[in-house]
Amino acid sequence: MRVYWANSIFSLADRNFNEICVAKLRQAGYQVFSPQEKPFNTGGVSEPDSTGIFNEDTGEILNSDVLVACIDQESIDSGVACEIGIAWHGKKRVIGLYTDFRKNRRGEGRMYKNLYVLGCIRASGGVIVGSVGEVLAALERQL
């Protein structure tokens, strides 16, 4: 199964988290595309081109069987939100990974997520899970 890993890639914390999660998916036997591993994101090319990024990543989404989207952060990363929409349009299932413990709070301490994006994940036939272990279980159910 081909998996597209969608998450912010710009902070050290996000890059480390992505490496850990992608490694776990690969260890479980999944073929994973992670935009973070593209040469211009690892120091290989100095200036990425927006059209090239869009075309290549869109092709990877559409050639994947499922998109796993980390929807942590105060607001869902704008690139991740776009990738979720492209996956839905391409009839790909989306698994939303939401690890922030504030999701369980009530009242003003609760973390808000954009309802349109959450609706898109659910409309894809996907689910929202809280851990990489739950991502693996959801992928197993896909098979």
Brief descriptors of the model:
single chain, 143 residues, alpha/beta, Rossmann fold, five-stranded parallel β-sheet, 5 helices, 43% helix, globular
Largest beta-sheet characterization: 5 strands, parallel
Q: Please trace the helix and strand order, writing H or E for each element.
A: EHEHEHEHEH
CATH topology: Rossmann fold
Low-pLDDT ranges = none
Strand content: 5-15%
CATH architecture: 3-Layer(aba) Sandwich
Categorize the overall geometry. Answer: globular
Q: How many strands in all?
A: 5
Structural class from helices and strands? alpha/beta
Number of domains: 1
Under CATH at level 1, the class stands as Alpha Beta
Helicity range: 40-55%
> Rounded to an integer, what's the Rg over CA atoms?
15 Å
Task: Quickly count the helices.
Answer: 5
Distance between the termini: 8 Å
Question: What is the topology, as strand order, of the major beta sheet?
Answer: 2-1-3-4-5
> What is the average per-residue confidence, as pLDDT, rounded to a whole number?
92
Task: Explain how this protein is built.
This protein has 143 residues and is α/β, with parallel strands linked by helices. The protein has a single domain (2-142), classed as Rossmann fold. 43% of the residues lie in helices and 15% in strands. The chain has 5 helices and 5 strands; from the N terminus they run βαβαβαβαβα. The chain has a 5-stranded parallel β-sheet, sandwiched between helices. Helix 3 packs parallel to helix 4 (115-123). The longest helix is centred in the first third of the chain and has 16 residues, at 12-27. The model has no long low-confidence stretch (mean pLDDT 92).
